[in-house]
Design a protein that fits this description.
The complex is a heterotrimer. Chain B is of the alpha/beta class. In chain B, 36% of the residues lie in helices and 13% in strands. Chain B contains 15 helices and 11 strands. The chains are: A alpha+beta, B alpha/beta, C alpha+beta.
């Protein structure tokens, strides 16, 4: 699967990365080299295999029992609905590029 | 007594506890060794912060409320956010960033009493195998300054190897603790996925990232690991609900009856002869200690490369979207409209390798390619985990090389990303499966360290540390120091 | 679905996506407050700001509310559902992705039923899923720049998606109102549309009957029922005009401008958004046990549909009435109390849906603040039912209760509104009127039934309005044969 310059510019746009022409070309070349080794995965027969998004998934059936262990943390843990985050605006905005009256400033957003 | 900077964590902890030396004295000695930032290992140092922590530790020792590691120094890989030091993740994107909170792992080590020496250099956003991808310059290997220390936790490994800190935290996504540990002749362990909280770790690949200790010995790693690990249910939903453990509990047990699995795929053509020799010798030593070996197979070892380099960049491309110049971090000084601001900010803030992985990641997730790449990779990932399951039915620990070669020269692979990826072949499979794994020094070749990898079944860190410790009791590779240290 | 009513020969097809903000105290993935109206960014914690190293932790209250909605709509509640990242860049989206649900939502299927006029309609749901709200952009005070407030970022939302089952703007608004009623009734959403708690996007397309679905345009962020109808009407007219002029409809997202009454396409994005959905690796799958669902079910108040069905069965009310009376818990309670007081369910229903509702709207008073209490209305209706007063007189009593308060019987006496039920006196009056109006009598006997009306008036006047109209009619007919 070979990428084209159009692919590169489409993805750079999706990823919000400005790529000048020379860089774009080099990127194309390097990514295509990478996809050279990726190609082999299409040959693997994965019929009936459930994708593994989490290594936690694989831990469900552990051979060894650990006392008190709940490796069923493979399901989403739920917390009580309670507020416990105080107002820390100043600390949180310390590293902000542009702030005015508590708002983050950005170039105008046009709908 | 040997010089302070040559002592390990356990030894220092003991000296501090008996007040033979003070935390301030220890901290001062180590700070002095970092003067001039040898090997470019550090990215941020603040002696006032360090000494204040040391003084607080001395006070605790004085009133007998000391933690297990009270007063022992540690340095943190710069992907752990800290309130008292800057956090850059090795990137221009976060130059000068100050986090309002500490990473859980940093908090826990401080609670155990450790004193922070500063932040350590690493490959940008933990992406790399040589620490040449840092926006703040490469790190050099204390064994040979013309060579790489490994990556992405290159600063951590170099700092420990050069005696700038007795221990360091690292992170391992595809081998980033194990490989630099091997290249720098130190010990490092990546625990089972979910053991150590990821809260406060700048995210690279969420389903792979794990924090772990790097130090001079398995004994030291066990001590840090115990402090670092434990459930963090309020902050990290992927944190395992498995109670904190004393990972040192099996260290003294002999290896009689241990079954070591040898995967043929780890000893193929690509393995350099000198590395092969060191590992073979080490295996012989393990047999002498009572272990038996059995051949196992991990047939999809080579596939782990494309699988990892699809999954990790995919997750990274999404994790790094928050760096947009709006709330924190770099923003382009000159730009046009909003779109232009985004594009310039990110192009300026991210280095080449990071941009490449973001691009790759976005591509494999994009419409029309998701099934063929991302989904297919996740399926093969499960098959890889199944392969390990089968292997562990026959053995307790899998032993093999960490990397195909010893450390290469700075610049050798800098322009060849694929060459870098291929060198990860032995570390990637265990990462994909989420298994605990270690690197320990196992030999030398032409003056350069050779590391040996130990892979265990889920939650078997104590077992790995036992094997490592017994090996270290009967060999002295881990005691070797680079020249001038 | 009934047969569509056509507009200039076109069938209108509408589907809705509604975002309901859930009434939790804290956000869906962080512990910051969701309270409305705080100073900018004072309720945006590290997780909400997507500071490096932060991670999401799920709010149980949000999941519970999703279960409640699923139960209210008769949906399937997934045992296992997955959170996915929807990736796109926008200043009010701190992570550069929204945590949502894609392939496997928490609520699947279900339906919303309501009346449009006399006709019962049912709109099928595709799904409802949990996701996080974005922050807000403020443009007014800044020149060339926008100010971003992330207080709202991370507020839990349920996105409720229908099949394209609606066939008119009226139906669409009726659906939205019914859904609004349900989410506020069960208490999962405060329904405050001005504050953005309940936002609707309408997918609108037109087609000739029998033709495949037309290209749809999406009208975003409709947060008032009035504007909803206007916007859809305009959009439909616009689409039909375009097609008639020979232009194909391009898929687009449009905004409604209440000042101009027009819909306009938003600035087009370069290519159709590729959100690159993938399961969020920071969140394991959400598992909801059947025990949990049953526990929620047992703790839920009677749902409006169920209550309406009970009204039909218990009080013998028509479905239409039952639906109208269950528009809110308060209204339903008012009805039941009234019915209990007078034991005249249908009359109670008529009065509440008629006179009471009229007054409520005219004076803009909610059912919680009525000057006429349910027991008072009940007492009033009782007096109608036992023939003490006529309907007309009752209206006068009602007026007095509404503006001055007081007691039903006392008002009847004070205003002398007692109906004349003494048939003897009434017959005497009738005889007089008949004698005085021979022409009407003749016409009636000749077969013109309407001639009776000319007699009723004078009879009522002579009785000073106290005659019982039913009795008058009965006696007249008897006398005239």
């Amino acid at each position: 699967m070979s990428l084209t310059p159009q692919d590169i510019s489409r993805i750079a746009s999706l990823a919000r990365l400005e790529l000048p022409a020379a860089q774009s070309e080099r990127m194309l070349h390097q990514i295509n080299a990478f996809f050279g080794i990726v190609a082999q995965i299409s040959a693997v027969d994965t019929t009936g295999v459930v994708p593994m998004a989490h290594p936690l998934d694989a831990m469900a059936q552990l051979p060894q029992h650990i006392p008190d262990a709940d490796v069923q943390g493979i399901t989403l843990r739920l917390r009580e609905d309670a507020v416990s985050e105080p107002d820390q605006r100043e600390a949180n905005q310390r590293s902000a590029p542009a702030v005015e009256r508590g708002l983050f400033l950005v170039p105008k957003v046009i709908e | 007594m040997r010089p302070l900077h040559q002592l390990g964590v356990a030894e220092l902890a003991a000296l501090l506890k008996t007040k033979e030396v003070s935390a301030v004295e220890v901290a001062t000695r180590f700070l002095a060794r970092s003067a001039g930032n040898p090997h470019n290992a550090f990215l941020d140092i603040d002696s006032e912060v360090t000494l204040a922590q040391a003084r607080a530790s001395d006070a605790k020792i004085a009133d007998s409320s000391a933690g297990p590691l009270e007063g022992v120094p540690v340095a943190h890989k710069d992907v752990f956010v800290t309130r008292d030091f800057a956090t850059t993740a090795g990137s221009k994107m976060l130059q000068g960033y100050r986090s309002p909170f500490d990473a859980t792992v940093v908090q826990r080590l401080r609670q155990a009493g450790m004193v922070s020496l500063g932040k350590l250099n690493c490959d940008e956003f933990a992406m790399g195998s040589s620490n040449e991808n840092s926006a703040y310059g490469p790190v050099s290997n204390p064994w040979d300054a013309s060579r790489v220390p490994g990556g992405s936790s290159g600063g951590s490994a170099a700092a420990v190897a050069a005696g700038l800190t007795p221990a360091a935290t690292g992170t391992d996504t595809g081998g980033s603790i194990r490989q630099p540990a091997a290249f720098c002749g130190i010990t490092g362990i990546k625990p089972t996925y979910g053991r150590a909280s990821r809260y406060g770790m700048v995210a690279y690949a969420s389903s792979l990232d794990q924090a772990g200790p790097m130090a001079r010995s398995a004994e030291d790693c066990a001590l840090l690991l115990a402090a670092m690990c434990g459930p963090d249910p309020d902050r990290d939903s992927t944190s395992l609900n498995v109670p904190a453990e004393d990972f040192s509990r099996h260290l003294q047990q002999p290896l009689a009856g241990l079954r070591i699995g040898i995967a043929q795929e780890f000893f193929g053509e690509g393995l350099a002869d000198d590395v092969r020799q060191s590992i073979d010798t080490a295996l012989a030593q393990l047999r002498n200690l009572g272990a038996s070996t059995v051949e196992v197979t991990l047939p999809r070892t080579e596939l782990s490369i494309p699988v990892y380099y699809i999954i990790a960049p995919a997750e990274a491309s999404s994790n790094l979207s928050r760096f947009d110049g709006v709330k924190f971090g770099h923003r382009a000084k000159e730009h046009g409209d909003l779109l232009d601001m985004y594009q310039k900010t990110r192009a300026q803030g991210f280095g080449q390798e990071v941009q490449r992985r973001i691009m790759t990641g976005a591509y494999v997730l994009s419409h029309g390619y998701y099934d063929a790449y991302y989904l297919q990779a996740q399926k093969i990932r499960r098959m890889i985990a199944e392969d390990f399951k089968k292997a562990f039915a026959q053995c307790d620990v899998i032993v093999g090389p960490v990397a195909p070669t010893t450390a290469w020269k700075l610049g050798d692979k800098a322009d060849d990303p694929v060459a870098n990826y291929l060198a990860d072949i032995f570390t990637l499979p265990a990462s994909l499966a989420g298994l605990p794994c270690m690197s320990i020094p196992a030999g030398h070749s032409a003056g350069l360290p050779v590391g040996m990898q130990l892979i265990g079944n889920y939650l078997q860190e104590a077992r790995l540390l036992q094997v490592a410790h017994q090996f270290q009791m009967h060999t002295d590779f881990h005691l070797a120091q680079a020249e001038g240290v | 679905m009934s047969s569509a009513k056509l507009l200039h020969g076109y069938e209108v097809v509408i589907g809705f996506e509604t975002h309901a903000q859930l009434s939790t105290h804290s956000k869906i993935f962080s512990r910051a407050s969701t309270a409305f109206g705080a100073e900018p960014n004072t309720q945006a914690c590290a997780v909400d700001l997507a500071l490096p190293g932060t991670l999401p932790v799920m709010n149980k209250g949000a999941v519970e509310r999703a279960i409640e909605l699923g139960l209210a709509l008769g949906s399937h509640i997934a045992e296992r559902s997955v959170f996915a990242r929807k990736n796109y860049f926008y200043p009010d989206l701190p992570k550069g992705y929204q945590i949502s649900q894609f392939e496997i939502p928490v609520v699947q299927g279900g339906a919303v039923s309501f009346f449009l006029g006399d006709e019962k309609k049912t709109v099928r749901l595709v799904r409802a899923h949990l996701e996080e709200d974005a922050g807000k952009s403020l443009h007014e005070d800044f020149i060339g720049q926008s100010g971003i407030d992330l207080n709202r970022a991370g507020t839990p939302l349920l996105e409720i998606v229908t099949e394209p089952d609606m066939r008119s703007s009226e139906e669409a608004v009726a659906y939205a109102k019914e859904l609004h009623k349900i989410v506020t009734w069960i208490g999962i959403c405060d329904g405050n549309m001005q504050e953005g708690s309940f936002r609707c996007d309408a997918n609108v397309s037109v087609r000739k009957p029998g033709a495949p679905l037309g290209t749809r345009r999406e009208i975003k962020n409709l947060n008032s029922f009035k504007f909803m109808q206007q916007a859809i009407d305009y959009e439909v007219r616009w689409q039909i005009e375009q097609i008639e002029d020979g232009h194909a409809i391009q898929q687009a997202t449009v905004l409604f401008n209440p000042d101009t009454g027009e819909t306009r396409a938003m600035r087009t994005k370069e290519d159709a958004a590729d959100y690159r959905y993938f399961p969020d690796p920071d969140l394991p799958p959400l598992v909801i046990s059947r025990e949990w669902v049953e526990r929620v079910r047992s703790e839920m108040a009677e749902l409006p549909r169920v209550m309406a069905e009970r009204f039909v069965a218990q009080y013998g009310l028509p479905e239409y009435d039952a639906t109208a009376l269950t528009q809110s818990k308060a209204m339903a309670a008012y009805f039941e109390e009234t019915a209990k007081a007078c034991e005249q369910a249908k009359l109670a229903s008529n009065w509440i849906m008629g006179e009471l509702s009229r007054r409520m709207n005219a004076d803009d008073i909610g059912i919680e603040h009525l000057p006429v209490k349910a027991v008072q209305l009940g007492a009033l209706i009782k007096r109608i039912a036992d023939d003490t007063i006529s309907n007309n007189a009752a209206k006068q009593v009602f007026d007095a209760l509404w503006s001055q308060g007081g007691e039903v019987d006392a008002i009847i006496e004070a205003k002398g509104l007692r109906q004349m039920n003494d048939t003897g006196a009434l017959e005497a009056i009738i005889d007089e009127v008949l004698a005085a109006n021979p022409k009407n009598v003749e016409e009636f006997k000749a077969g013109n039934a309407k001639a009776l009306n000319g007699l009723v008036g004078p009879i009522m006047k002579a009785s000073k309005g106290k005659a019982n109209p039913a009795q008058v009619n009965a006696l007249l007919l008897k006398k005239l044969g």
